[in-house]
């Protein structure tokens, strides 16, 4: 039996998440600027008699271990394309918050895809892997490429973006997750009767990313899903305030939440914000992470 293959894959924060009106297919057009951050899951695939999944880590109990897991679906889709059986055991060593708005499930899908492609010796071109990622979910292609990228369409059409320097982030993890479809539904409810403009990437934000200027980026962060996440989870307002009071340059909900993200001017300030958030009692835990981070990588 051949040895397993392990892939390391990062979480993301959306530095711009501009959301258009609901489309006929139920999705929303986005101008979605993804930034990969240094919190990672590791996905290991090993040959097995049938497709099975296991998960370890503090929040492993919240991860589905059936075929609804994007990692399992990735193995099935890739195997079907090549007329082979997806007979692997997938182990997810989980460090990305579950249902937290940091694309942890998408990361596992991209990780399993690359791991299976490597284990089975397929050598699929990146374009083919990206196509499968887009079938798996709107955020999955970005988990594969990492770094920074603008996602248009429903977020799956990527343009790689330059990043001028390292940025220091703090992530506050809330108790329990938020369902992404539920947050989009709440966005639709809050915008009922409103003529929602077509989303466009912010030139100021792209400039700030390109120069790596944390102060300028702080002033340009956008998350149109934040009011919806706060409406469903009003307690997040206290977390945002606690981080800002502790010296964050900016605070925002990460994606559909409920994880909240804080931009710090340097590593020391980031550590101070973590301590203040923990002392505030307004989150379950808080961690530092730097950006950018590499996309899915075979270890
Ligand atoms: O693409 P994915 O399966 O990750 O999307 C999860 C859900 O999030 C969708 O079913 C939809 O409700 C919502 N969504 C959306 N518009 C997007 C991306 C996601 O409405 N651009």
Write down the overall geometry. globular
Structural class: alpha+beta
User: What ligands are attached or bound here?
Assistant: cytidine-5'-monophosphate
Individual helix count: 10
Strand fraction: 25-35%
Number of domains: 2
CATH architecture grouping of the largest domain: 2-Layer Sandwich
What is the alpha-carbon Rg in Å?
19 Å
What kind of sheet is the major sheet? 8 strands, mixed
The helix content is 25-40%
Number of strands: 12
Q: Which stretches of 5+ consecutive residues score pLDDT under 50? A: none
Order of helices and strands: EEEHEHHHEEEHHHEHHEEHEE
CATH class label of the largest domain: Alpha Beta
Euclidean distance between termini CA atoms: 19 Å
- CATH topology name of the largest domain, in short, is Ribosomal Protein S5, domain 2
Give the rounded overall mean pLDDT: 97
Describe it.
The protein is of the alpha+beta class. The chain folds into 2 domains: 157 residues, Ribosomal Protein S5, domain 2; 125 residues, 2-Layer Sandwich (Alpha-Beta Plaits). It has 10 helices and 12 strands. The strands form 2 sheets. Strands 1, 2, 3, 4, 5, 6, 8 and 12 form an 8-stranded mixed sheet that branches. α1 packs across α3 and α2 crosses α3. The longest helix has 16 residues. The structure holds cytidine-5'-monophosphate. Cytidine-5'-monophosphate binds next to β2 and α5.
């Amino acid at each position: 039996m051949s040895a397993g293959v392990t892939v390391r894959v990062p979480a993301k924060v959306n530095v711009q998440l501009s959301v258009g009106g609901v489309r006929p297919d139920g999705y929303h057009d986005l101008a979605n600027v993804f930034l990969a951050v240094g919190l990672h899951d590791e996905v290991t695939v090993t040959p097995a008699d049938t497709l099975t999944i296991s998960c370890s880590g503090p929040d492993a109990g919240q991860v589905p271990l059936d075929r609804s897991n994007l990692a399992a679906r990735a193995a099935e889709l890739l195997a079907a394309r090549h007329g082979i059986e997806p007979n692997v055991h997938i182990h997810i060593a989980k460090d990305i918050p579950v249902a937290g708005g940091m694309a942890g499930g998408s990361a596992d899908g991209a990780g399993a895809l690359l791991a299976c492609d490597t284990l089975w010796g397929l050598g699929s071109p990146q374009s083919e892997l990206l196509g499968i990622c887009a079938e798996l979910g709107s955020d999955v292609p970005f988990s594969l490429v990492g770094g920074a990228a603008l996602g248009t369409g429903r977020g799956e059409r990527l343009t790689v973006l330059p990043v001028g320097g390292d940025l220091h982030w703090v992530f506050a993890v809330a108790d329990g997750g938020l369902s992404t479809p539920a947050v989009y539904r709440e966005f639709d409810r809050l915008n009922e009767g409103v003529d929602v403009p077509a989303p466009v990437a912010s030139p100021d934000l792209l400039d700030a990313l390109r120069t790596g200027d944390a102060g300028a980026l702080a002033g340009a962060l956008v998350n149109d899903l934040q009011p919806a996440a706060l409406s469903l989870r009003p307690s997040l307002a206290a977390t945002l305030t606690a981080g800002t009071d502790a010296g964050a340059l900016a605070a925002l909900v990460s994606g559909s939440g409920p994880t909240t993200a804080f931009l710090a001017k340097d590593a020391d300030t980031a550590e101070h914000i973590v301590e203040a958030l923990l002392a505030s009692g307004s989150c379950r835990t808080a961690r530092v992470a730097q950006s950018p981070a590499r996309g899915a990588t075979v270890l």
